[in-house]
Amino acid sequence: MVINVILPVLFVLLVGYLFGRFTDVDLSPISKLAITVLSPALIFSFLVRNTLSSSQLFQIIFSVLIFTLMMTLLTVIIIKWTGSGQWLIPSLLSTVFPNTGNYGLPIVLFAYGESAFSLAVVIVVINFILMYSLGIYFAILSKDSWKQALTKIIKLPTTYATILAILVNLFSIEIPNFIYDPVKMVGESMIPLALLLLGIQLSKTNIKGHVSTAIIASALKMIAAPIVIFVIVLIAGIDGTIAKVIILLNSMPTAVVMTMIATEYKSGADMVANVTLITTLTSFFSITTLLYLLEIIFGKATI
Q1: What pLDDT digit, counting tens, does each position of 216-271 carry?
Q2: Which residues pair with residue 254 across a beta bridge?
Q3: In terms of Cα–Cα distance, which of 171, 170, 274, 293 is closest to 213?
Q4: Does CATH place domain 2-20+27-201+214-297 in 1.10.10?
Q5: Is the pLDDT assigned to residue 176 strictly greater than 70?
Q6: How many angstroms separate the CA atoms of 84 and 50, rounded?
Q7: What percent of the chain has pLDDT over 90?
């Protein structure tokens, strides 16, 4: 199973990396297309026909929020204990927010299929909200941060897609196939494009400066984070495929979007980029190992 999961992802990443390495491509219009059109279509199409129960939704929200809190506290403790307090903000941006979107979603789809993918989309939406609220708060740490974060979230097309999907589910509105099918088709194109974008972004990233702190943050992200989320899932009594998806997505490398947020708010973008590169490269091995362990621990249980 792992070969069928990891190799397709690596292949698409490599194509994106080589394209970025040997061309002077402008990512802005591609990223804008992904954020304003493809992501909302993906989120809407999978949420609008989601069969999650209220208990499953609660398990997901509870796990992600507790994980975010625990990783924040652990990062503060470890970074200050190692005497790297001046790099606390970029460390938080690097360790707290996993790359659930353009890396995690394809892995889940290849590993567990469309039913698990629907679970993953919910986690991506929650993380997206956290990145543009708590992530921006970390980046600027001012009294106006929550106001700015809220404004950012309100302007995102994915926010409207999420709200619309919730309303459709709440009022049991039937979306006809001639509308749903093209929206789903557009949304599904986000999956390969996201991997290509990640490969292109990695091709533009180089390790420079703050290497020791970057290594510490990378260890927190790729070693501590899987342990933390596993303990949370264990204590919460979550099992089956939902446990696999929660653990797998929260064990992903640093979210690429955090480098953009760090750049925008001048919060140690170089170090965040370093950790993103290190964790993404090491994740090929850690995610492979994790997939094997999840099969052993949770078996082939279904949702």
Answers
A1: 999 999 999 999 999 999 999 998 999 999 999 999 999 888 887 787 777 887 88
A2: 98
A3: 274
A4: no
A5: yes
A6: 44
A7: 35
Q: What residues does each domain of the chain span?
A: 2-20+27-201+214-297
Structure tokens given for 292: 């094997």
CA-wise closest residue to 254 among 274, 269, 271, 276: 276
Residue type, 187: G
- The 10s digit of each residue's pLDDT in 72-109 is 999 999 999 998 888 999 999 999 999 998 789 889 98
Which tokens in the block code for residue 5?
């999961």
- Greatest mean pLDDT among 135-144, 198-207, 276-285 lies in 276-285
Residue type, 56: Q
Question: Could you tell me if 250 and 225 are in contact, meaning their C-beta atoms sit under 8 angstroms apart?
Answer: yes
Placement of tokens 């979603």 in the chain: 105
User: Secondary structure of the chain in the HEC alphabet?
Assistant: CHHHHHHHHHHHHHHHHHHHHHCCCCHHHHHHHHHHHHHHHHHHHHHCCCCCCHHHHHHHHHHHHHHHHHHHHHHHHHHHHCCCHHHHHHHHHHHCCECHHHHHHHHHHHHHCHHHHHHHHHHHHHHHHHHCCHHHHHHHCCCCHHHHHHHHHHHCHHHHHHHHHHHHHHCCCCCCHHHHHHHHHHHHCHHHHHHHHHHHHHHCCCCCCCHHHHHHHHHHHHHHHHHHHHHHHHHHCCCHHHHHHHHHHHCCCECCHHHHHHHHCCCCHHHHHHHHHHHHHHHHHHHHHHHHHHHHHHCCCCC
